[in-house]
Amino acid sequence: MLQSPEFNSNLIKAKAKKFGFQNCGISRADFLEEDARPFESWLKHNYQGEMSYMENYFDKRLDPRRLVEGSKSVISLSYNYFPEKNLANLGNLKISKYAYGEDYHEIIKEILREMVAELKDEIGDIECRVFTDSAPILERSWARKSGIGWVGKNANLITKQTGSFYFLAEIICDLELVEDYETTDHCGSCRKCIDACPTDAIVADRVIDGSKCISYATIELKNEIPAHFKGKMEDWMFGCDICQDVCPWNRFSKPHQQEKFKPNSLLQNLEKSDWQELSQELFSEIFRKSPVKRTKFAGLKRNIEFLTDSKTSNF
Prior knowledge:
It is a single chain. The chain is of the alpha+beta class. The protein folds into two domains: 5-173, no CATH class; 200-242 and 264-307, no CATH class. Helices cover 35% and strands 13% of the residues. It has helices at 5-18, 33-44, 58-62, 104-123, 139-145, 192-196, 214-220, 242-245, 265-269, 272-276, 280-286, 296-313; strands at residues 23-28, 73-80, 94-95, 128-131, 150-151, 157-158, 166-173, 202-204, 207-208, 236-238. The strands form four sheets. It has a four-stranded antiparallel sheet, with helices on both faces. A two-stranded parallel sheet has the order 3-10. A two-stranded antiparallel ribbon has the order 5-6. Monomer.
């Protein structure tokens, strides 16, 4: 049954809440005019490092209608991953909070599919696709346009009520919906994230040199970690949360309720010496469903050895 854009928009937001999403906002599927030049400049400065895939599908990244034919709306959603226990505080080698549990790509996509199935039952047939960090989409730009939050100086999306420890996801569909408004910026004169970054990866306000970022070095980079990272990685062996941890808005972060994002006992109990002796078998057991699998055993071992060598060279 055909319903009004207002009815459908309200229904979608109610469903998003039911399925555990923190926030839901709507934008018109159109060309991201204001993002085109900054993104092009970012690529020209080679801030993508060896992430050559960022250079592909330039037009698709800026226009969702090229991804989903006939699309009229972009539904942006956020899903909390802030943990109850911060493992990085335990004086151990560290991994980013988003990787404590199972791989969010599959978990959130499955939730989105179930949500869309319910929407189709109530609205009728919808032409759509669901995404979460899985296609050439400028996710933060769409979330910003939909009013979920503003892009902070560390280039993360920040929401007043919930901080920035959340995943972003999208449903691009052919429904005419009611657009939401962008929120205002609330970083002010704060530069805690800029000052805290040990590798000076935040090269300008809201501009990240990816090739200097610890997350890039420990996840995206496939070759040897450059020497300029020595002594600056602060025990991060997979990803980095420094610029989020120091953000004042994250004092409002609350623990997630997703069982699959919780760390397993092995991950919580290993100490530095155990990590240095990490075997392929143990790696496979700990990270069987984890996003850490992306580095493969050899990549994580490389990171651990780099951290160990850096500590030794400082004596």
